[in-house]
Target: DUF1878 family protein
Amino acid sequence: MNKLNKAETTSFHVELLSKLIDIHNYPFSKMIIEKNVTREEYNDLFRMLNTLDKQYRRQKKEGLLDFTILIIHFAGMLTEKLDPNQTIYALKKEGYYPSLMNVFIQIIEFNDIR
Model:
């Protein structure tokens, strides 16, 4: 089997496996697979989230109440493959950075009401 056939077969197998993932329990993982997010993009996302979470905790401790700048940074730095709002809800569902995702969701929902 040549490299192209092997890559196509691997891609096909991953596609089949992604269909087995319950979107209700693992929407973020499914999104990563479906959007062909690379390992580097995935790692960059979690480095950014770790930084934003630290900033959020520090700013909250300092008494800041408006965290809009953090969600703007998140949306601006997110790979173009992923929708910011969809990614936030999916991260929340899978339990990643719950406090930060709760704040992001509050901002999203507040802006949707306006």
Q: What stands out?
A: The two ends are 57 Å apart (CA to CA). The domain at 23-113 is CATH 1.10.3750.10 (Hypothetical protein YhaI fold). Helices lie at 3-20, 27-34, 39-61, 68-77, 84-93, 98-113. The CA atoms of residues 59 and 65 lie 8 Å apart.
